[in-house]
Amino acid sequence: MTHPAGDVVTAGHLHQGKGQFYGVWGGLLILTVVEIALAYNQVFTPRNMLIVLLILSIIKSALIIGYFMHLKFEAGRMKWLLMCSVCFCLALMAVFFADAERIVSLGWKAH
Amino acid sequence: MADAVLLHHPHGEAYEPSWFRTYSKKIGMWLFILSDSLTFGALLFAYSYNRLSTPNWPTPFHVESIRNASIMTGFLLTSSLTMVMAVLASSRGDRAWTRNWLLATMAFGAGFVLLHAAEWNKLIDEGLRWPLFQQLFDLKPGTNPEYVAATRNFPQFGGTFFALTGMHMLHVTIGIMYLGAVALRKLWLPILAVLAVACWWAPGPFHYGFYVMLFGLAIAAIILFLKPMDYSDHDIEVTGLYWHFVDLVWMFIFPLVYLMSTKITS
Questions:
Q1: Cα separation of B168 and B247, whole Å?
Q2: CB B49 to CB A32 under 8 A?
Q3: Does residue A109 belong to any structural domain of this protein?
Q4: Do A14 and B260 touch (CB under 8 A)?
Q5: Confidence bin at A4 (pLDDT 50/70/90)
Q6: Would you call A97 helix, strand, or coil by DSSP?
Q7: Is the residue at A88 inside a domain?
Q8: In a domain, A93, yes or no
Q9: Tens-place pLDDT, residues A52-75
Q10: Do the chains contact at A42 and B49, CB–CB below 8 Å?
Q11: What is the DSSP string of A8-51?
């Protein structure tokens, strides 16, 4: 398989063995089972359940981005620029969550 | 930059090495992924905002829905593994196993879509709907009073659920078409045509999948005929990035939408 002239190929970016990927896949399945078990048994209150599920989701996404998408093995400037920019944009959306909680107490109420 | 290396093109032009030290197709796909992640971020934000600002948000998903969604999650995670295996096979020049692993990825992806479609059909029949569905498809009344009540009292529950999961299902479907074009090239076109015809006979809203398939067939035909090429390991890797992104989004949708809305009765 040939590449067009001018393309730059990162050296050694696919040197990981299959074992590592099977290990990551196993880890993802285990984390998923943990999430389902926690939700099925309703271990936490809804607020704490949300926090725990979000933390587990972030760990799973870090595994997928780092290993399956190979970002762990890319140039540092690429990793930082991509991740910081998307996290910043998502954080901007989160600014409005305070408004969602405030809205609950607004409006006409029957007495 | 005394140690900069200039790469020489056969026609005599010179290119500077990429600032990200990787090839441009990969950078392009990463930029697309960033923009698409903001799309899903906005949808997840809309769902979360609605949920936080609505007291007594319904939590109607019983064991069957959670079991179905869990199997779907397993399918998608396994499809990510087979996609990585396809990328490894292509990097060592093994064309047969690259195709095999890509076909396995498509199979797991198709399994996800079919299970999800069955789940949607069941929920719609039981009464969980987007108010627009009722007007467009003239559906019979729902059979589950819990879902009927959720739709009547909290129309935004059905709206956010179907918008989020529908957008994700569309991405998975497009991903399967993309994988098919890379794995099978022109052989994928008649297969896609058969699938489009099959969708025509599908029940309920899935009949409209015919139009998605038809559109995908047109785009795939344009690309495969106008730019026929032998897909390199770079192309397989870039395809993999898209597929893993689709899996990544589900890692957030599954817990936030399904697991946070469980109704497990002991």
A1: 9
A2: no
A3: no
A4: no
A5: very low
A6: helix
A7: yes
A8: yes
A9: 999 999 999 999 999 999 999 988
A10: no
A11: ---TTTT---HHHHHHHHHHHHHHHHHHHHHHHTT-S-HHHHHH
- Testing the interface with A: which of B8, B16, B26, B91 to mutate, by most A Cβ within 10 A? B26
What residues contact B111, with CB distance under 8 A and at least 6 apart?
A: B75
Q: What is the mean pLDDT of residues B40-69?
A: 89
**Which domain covers residue A55, as residue numbers?**
17-69
Q: Are residues A21 and A36 in the same domain?
A: yes
Q: Which of B7, B18, B84, B262 to substitute to test the interface with A, most A CBs within 10 Å? A: B84
pLDDT per position as a tens digit, B206-252: 787 888 889 989 999 998 988 888 888 999 999 999 999 999 999 99
Question: A55 and A33: one domain?
Answer: yes
Number of domains in chain A: 2
A57 and A97 in a single domain? The answer is no
Angle, vertex CA A96, rays to CA A91 and CA A97, nearest 5: 90
Same domain, A47 and A89: no
Chain B residue nearest residue A61, CA to CA: B248
In a domain, A4, yes or no: no
Residue B31, number of CB atoms within 10 A of its CB: 12
Residue of A nearest to B238 (CA): A69
Q: Do B17 and A8 touch (CB under 8 A)?
A: yes
- Residue B80 sits at the chain A interface (C-beta within 8 Å): yes
- Select from A7, A82, A95 the residue whose CB has the most chain B CBs within 10 Å, as the one to mutate to test that interface: A7
Residues A38 and A64 grouped into a single domain = yes
State whether A63 and A35 are in the same domain. Answer: yes
Domains and CATH numbers, chain B: 24-261 (1.20.120.80)
Please name the residues between 87 and 106 in chain B that touch chain A, using a CB distance below 8 Å: 87-88, 90-91, 93
ipTM of the complex: 0.86
Same domain, A34 and A53: yes
A49 and A83 belong to one structural domain: no
